[in-house]
Amino acid sequence: MLHSHLTTLNAVSLVLSAFAAEGLSSEPLLAGSGIVEADLSRPDIRITTHQEMQVCANAVALRQEIGLQLGRRMHVSSYGILGYALLTAATFGDALRLALQYPALLGTLFELSLVEDGEHIWFSASDYRDDEGLRVFNAELCIGSLKVICDDLLGKPLPLLAARFAHSAPDYQSCYVDSFTCTLQFSARDNAFAFDKVWLEQPLPLADPVTHRDMRERCRRQNIEFTGRQAWLGRIRQLLADQLDQTPSFGVIAQKMNCSERTLRRHLHTTGSSYQQLLDELRFERAKQLLYEDRLPIHRIAEVLGFSETASLRHAFIRWSGVAPSQFRR
Predict the structure, then answer these.
(1) Cα(57)–Cα(76) distance, integer angstroms
(2) What are the sequence ranges of the domains in the chain?
């Protein structure tokens, strides 16, 4: 699929810090993502979810249960302006409903909703729309971080009645008790946790109507910027994807975007991306898909991806994944 969403470096920074405590350098975690150490000190940089997920995939390869650990560290302060808007809302319910208005600012890969079930409320994450190989990781990260956000908003732990996950119980199921002290269900219809409906009316300890109005307006403007960039970036990705076997030049893409090459380069820079990076992302995604399907020989895959020879694909794939295409297929 096309990864057109933009996000911040918050999750990437958390991944790196989690492993840094064990003495692991950032190099193997950043491999294939196009993110470099210097980017981590740039507060204005935006990365694509593809870049973020590449770092997460590297982390999962090292530790399967890392999603749960990261979820416990994704505090409400990780969400910038949106986090302040949530903290200053009048009630817990107001804050949750505001969060649902801005999925782009949350950076979620799920459809979030509050589902009323009698006297219970389920905070649900469904309709996953990204790399299938990271479905479990993203479910654990999403539900774990939502629980932490709830605790931060209230200033105390939100008592959970139950939690459920769409995936089957993993080998490290015992690790879930650190995040969810309640009844657990696996192979469910969605990923969610339940709490008593009465909590929606709970006043928040940091409520401030003046600050809240200001933060809401800033969220509205930032959301317009984020979604505008996503649509713009998505258009470029689609142009590349439609002609991947012919690899349209940077000049051709600029022409189709009705702008100069200089303007296109500047806009890509503001998203923390580049023409080559977008092309590599699309080629890597398509290459993995074709290798999984196991229908085409590798030399034909090279042609489909616009490489002039098989050796070029091999070198690129090793750079992206650390292994050759033939090894990946096996």
Answers:
(1) 24
(2) 6-209, 243-329
